[in-house]
Structure formats: structure tokens, C-alpha cells
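Good day; I would like, with your permission, to put a structural problem before you. A protein sequence and the C-alpha cells that stand for its backbone fold form the material at issue. The record follows directly beneath this note:
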Amino acid sequence: MDFGLSEEQMALQDSINRYLDGQAGLEQLRRFVKDGDCRHVWDGLIELGVGSLLLPEADGGLGLAILDAALVAECLGAHVTPTPFIGSAVIAPLALRHVDPGLRSKFLSPLCDGTITAGVALSELAGARGQAEVTATDSKLSGQSLFVLDPRADIVLVATNTRALYLVEAGADGLQQLVHTTIDRTRSSGEIRLDNTPAQLISADPAVAENLLDIARVMLVADTLGAAQHMLNAAVAYAKERKQFNRVIGSFQAVKHMCAEMAAELEPCRAMMWYAAYALDELPHEARLTACHAKAHVAEAGTFVARTATEVHGGVGFTDLLGLHYWFKRIGFNRQALGAPELVREEAVKLQEAMA
């Protein structure tokens, strides 16, 4: 049995990484943070086929698996790429499998070619904050959803307090799409407010929305893995070059231990992410629990790597010169998005009790 990636999957990551090395470097990232425009990066990824990864071949897609999408997410995290990947290339195409052919054809093709983008408002499923909740009456939504990924997208997938899933189009009556300033400036997030806003029902079955939540969490896991691996690589490279007392700091035992401990923490996370993504396609009875475990564990391992890698760099690690803070903050955002480790572990406990 092969427990590694296939040649095709490694080629996929190599293709994405080579593109991002040239088009999504640190200077391009700084420009995005300043003016908020990442359209050229997403257009290039669309040309590589990222928008159609999960679409069946019958719908003009590549027909790949969720694990393949997670491998792309890992590349995006390694480059802290500002794109609407999770909503537009993963959650929306999968959600639209549950609608009638007319509605599916209306949105799938524009998503595939990058004409429109999709936002994700699933925080209702991960625990609403305060009075924030979304209710549905006669295909009209009211309320507020926080921590929306890409809130100003052309369409937004919204979970309600009954765990039904709806699609709302930008510009609909009573819809406000607001972008918030968060610690992670590489990703667009915010809230949507709805006041009797017309919406299309995707599915009233809670299992559909919960499955999409699991998939979104695994994408965040992969993103964190990529970002943390980048920080580890940067710390090791810096330790091999930076000199103190006429010796590279990587020769000091304390620094060696810091790098080794980061590698030891991170390496098991890769297998955990692979398995969680694989289970979503092949082992549905394990998928939810595995996604929870992966989300909680990788969030904490990523936080440890981010902190330790910054320490290896010393004072320069806190400056904008190397830009490490972009990766640090991306990992911090991923930790909290769609459920912090404590909340997700509580979900896992309840799942295990139900399975006992």
C-alpha cells in the first residue's frame, strides 16, 4: 500500500508552487496588503485549472479529490497567497452539486472560469457569537453572520441556525457585505448582514452544511501546514547563515534543538492532513471526527512553529524586512477560523460519545 503522494499529485503541487514563486512573492503580497487587489494571482490560478479542481468531468472539471484540493491549499498557505480559493474552488462547487441543473449551470461555469467568486459564511455551524445568527423564512434570510471568508464575493454560501444552507447573490435586497480589518491582512474576511434578503435554498439537510464545514476546516489545516513549513524552512536557512561569535547560529545546540523540535511537531501534521482529506472522500463515517482532530492539532502545532521560527530569527523576525509576520498571522487566523482548538475538541468529544 502506498502511503505517499502520487506522481500526479506531486506534479500538481510543483506546478502551483512554480507559479506562485513568480507571481505571489513577498513584494506582490505587500502590494496586496496596501491596495487589496489580488485579481491577477487568482486569474493565473484559474488558468492552471484550480477553479475546476473538484468539478466532475461531466461538468467540464478535472474531477479530482478533496485531497488534491488540500494539496493546493498547502501551496497557497506556503506563499500566504491572497485568493478566494476555499469558497470559489472548493466549497461552492461542492455545494452546487445539491441543486437543480438550472441553478448549477448558472453558477458553476462562472466559478470555473473565474468570472465570479464565492464567499463562505459557515460560522453559524461552528458556534455563533453573541446575538449573531441567521434565520430563514420563506426563502428570505435575516440576521448576521460573522467571520465570513471573502464577504464581498459575488455569491455567498450562508448557513442558518437550523443548519440549512442557502446561496445569496451580491446586490440582493437587504444584504450588506462588510470587510473587517483582522490580524491576517492576506485574506479577506468580515461579516454579512441580512434583512429579508432573497436566497436560494441549497439544502435543508444539516448533514450537507456540516460536511462542507468539515471540508473548509481541512482546507484551513492544509493552509496552516504550508505556512508553518515555510516558517520552519526560513528558520533553518537563517540559522545556517546568521553568525554570532564567528559561528553560524545553527551550530549552537539550543538553536539546533529549536529547529529539530519544530520539525518533529510539524511532520506528523502532514499525514494527519492527508488522512483527514482522504476520509472526506473515502471514509465518510470517520470524516467529521478526523477533520476535528486535524483542525485542533495542526492549529496548535502551527502556532508553536510560528512562534519558535520567529524566535530563531531573533529581533529581525519581528520586523517587516523578512515579512515573517504575514505567515505568523495567517496561522493565527486559521487557528480561530471555523472553530478554535478548544471548540473543535469539544465537538470531537460529542461525536465520540455519540459513536460509543
